[in-house]
Specification:
Helices cover 32% and strands 25% of the residues. By secondary structure, it is α/β, with parallel strands linked by helices. The strands form 5 sheets. Strands 15, 16, 17, 18, 19, 20, 21 and 22 form an 8-stranded antiparallel β-sheet that branches. Strands 2-1-11-10-12-13-14 form a 7-stranded mixed β-sheet.
């Protein structure tokens, strides 16, 4: 049996047991647990054998407390040793963890929890306070566990009591789970609407491990800095050491690059996983400081497109043979495609000409096709759904990591899924096109397209034309009404402070750029914005709908909309 051998049981938690049997003394996780006298993070380390033992004990305690197979369990714990032990312990017990971004709007959080109908709730004290005061899961939650703090008026058990209960009964092995058994409910970021709970079966997680290992050529023994906590949960299954960074995971765009670099150097990190916002912070720091990351051999950035400008800056920080991957996918299906930085840069001029962003070829296990863009439900593929070769269409995917349903959202499931050939295809909610080499080009979210009398405009095809300007950080296509007509406009976030007079010059330079490309030559309206609204999870997905509302209030201020 090799170190990359497949897990023999249907339970994703068995992957940790397998790796612990192969490399018991290797560090599984380094995690901040406090600060020293001068404010530097103090780290605690667990080996694979120690993590395996802790998971077995806590899983035993959870089962004894009534959180066993099939029990839906909301988990709201900050990145910590306890979070990773609990996540694997819930899998091992056969329970169904429910993961929701902690920073989402309170109303969306309440709706999400009410839809998921958790039977148990594990959280830090503040999460319990919110649960009680705002009525989260009031009618369904029976078991309550408090982590990293005191239990107050809400009752239930402390994490330490669960562990003591498990110690009394002894560790348990991973529960036997059918591949199709519900493993977890992971909520989408809600970037284009209310977050939806995606049903993950155990086979989806196992397929993701296989796909991630193959796509990025990951080997056991590597050291990972996962700045998006859920991604760290794959590390034990891949045999990697997780180094949890000293940062607020809900604000990757505000991460301290000096702390990140110091941590990378201290632990000789080989792999970095981060959102495009965090990668941009790190790349900009490297460009100004000249700092290099000599141990890093691989960077993986997902959640939104990474601009060629950022990719080029980051490359200068890495060894010549290092790779930067920008996989394409979604909570419902990940990864779908991937592309490496050298190819991104080789195709950058096509992005600048308005072709969109190349996300590479589909992974071998995936099937990807394009259908005509529509907001309506589709029952099956047919002539009415087909697009011509090279044409823009909605991206649909089928593969071993493609999830099949949203929890308690039957209408959303019908809208997002297509049953064909005995398999479920997922409508990504994105639009794009294939080139002659079979590479997929991402044109943006379907919900962000702008339909006008002059045609349909797609965000990533339009914005790439303007993002080349040296003083532009990023742009956003929006649709507004000017004198009663729907027209496309561009919101502009500058990379640095500029005067009003300088902005006047820049907006006309943007107009000049637009005239050079057919996809943008009718755009006349430009608005400077102080800072784009973005999603909570990645700080990178632009809320173009909110920007459209903002721009609409300014659309009639000048004949050309140049305000």
């Amino acid at each position: 049996m090799t170190a990359n051998a497949p897990v023999s049981t249907g339970n994703i938690a068995a992957s940790l047991s397998f790796m612990a049997s192969r490399q018991p003394t290797r560090a599984a996780i380094h995690c901040p647990v406090g600060r020293d006298a001068v404010g530097v993070a103090i780290y605690k380390t667990l080996t694979y054998a120690e993590l395996e033992h802790e998971v077995g004990i806590v899983a035993s305690g959870l089962i004894a407390y009534g959180i066993g197979p099939g029990v839906r369990t909301a988990l709201m714990v900050r990145p910590s040793i306890e979070l990773f032990v609990l996540m694997f312990a819930l899998f091992r017990a056969g329970a169904v963890p429910i993961l929701i971004d902690p920073g989402i709007d309170r109303r969306a959080l309440r709706q999400s929890l009410n839809e998921a109908r958790p039977q148990a709730f594990i959280g830090v004290p503040m999460a319990h306070v919110g649960r009680v005061l705002l009525g989260w899961g009031r009618s369904t939650i029976k078991q309550r566990i408090t982590v990293n703090g005191s239990r107050l008026f809400w009752g239930g058990a402390l994490y330490e009591q669960i562990r003591a209960l498990g110690d009394k009964h002894g560790p348990v092995p991973p529960a036997a789970m059918a591949p199709d058994a519900l493993a977890a409910i992971l909520f989408t970021s809600g970037a284009t609407g209310v977050p939806k709970g995606v049903e993950y079966q155990h086979r989806h997680f196992l397929a993701q491990i296989i796909a991630i290992r193959a796509a990025f050529r990951i080997q056991p023994g590597e050291i990972d800095l996962p700045t998006f906590p859920p991604f760290a949960l794959f590390d034990p299954a891949l045999g990697m050491t997780s180094v949890i960074p000293d940062m607020d995971p809900t604000k990757p765009g505000s991460a301290d690059p000096v702390k990140l670099v110091n941590t990378i150097e201290k632990y000789e990190v080989t792999t970095l996983f981060g959102s495009p916002a965090l990668v941009e912070v790190l790349a900009n720091y490297g460009a100004t400081s000249g700092k290099r990351l000599d141990t890093v051999k691989r960077v993986i950035s997902a959640g939104a497109p990474v601009t060629p400008k950022t990719v080029q800056r980051l490359r200068t920080m890495l060894p010549d043979d290092a790779e930067i991957f920008t996989p394409y996918g979604a909570t419902e299906c990940l990864p779908v495609c991937t592309i490496e930085s050298r190819e991104i840069l080789a195709l950058a001029e096509r992005t600048n000409r308005g072709e969109g962003i190349c996300v590479g070829k589909p992974l071998p296990a995936n099937q990807v096709r394009l259908i005509k863009v529509t907001d309506e439900m589709i029952d099956a593929f047919g002539p009415a759904t087909e697009v011509l070769p090279g044409a823009i269409g909605e991206i649909v995917v089928c593969g071993p990591t493609t999830t099949e349903a949203y929890f308690s959202r039957a209408s959303a499931t019908r809208l997002a899924k297509i049953a064909h050939g005995g398999r479920i295809w997922h409508r990504m909610g994105d639009v794009g096109h294939f080139d002659a080499q079979g590479r997929l080009w991402y044109a943006g979210r379907k919900a962000h397209r702008v339909e006008t009398g002059n045609g349909v405009f797609y965000p990533e095809m339009v914005e790439g034309v303007f993002n080349v300007h040296p003083k532009v950080r990023r742009t956003a296509l929006v649709g507004v009404h000017v004198h009663g007509k729907a027209v496309p406009g561009i919101c502009v976030e500058l990379s640095q402070d500029v005067s009003k007079a300088e902005w006047k010059r820049i907006r006309f330079e943007l107009r000049d750029l637009s005239l050079r490309v057919e996809a943008t030559n009718v755009i006349r309206h430009y608005w400077r914005h102080p800072g784009f609204p973005v999603d909570i999870r990645h700080n990178a997905k632009i809320d173009r709908i909110a920007l459209a509302r903002w721009a609409s209030k300014r659309a009639d201020k000048a004949d050309l909309g140049l305000t």
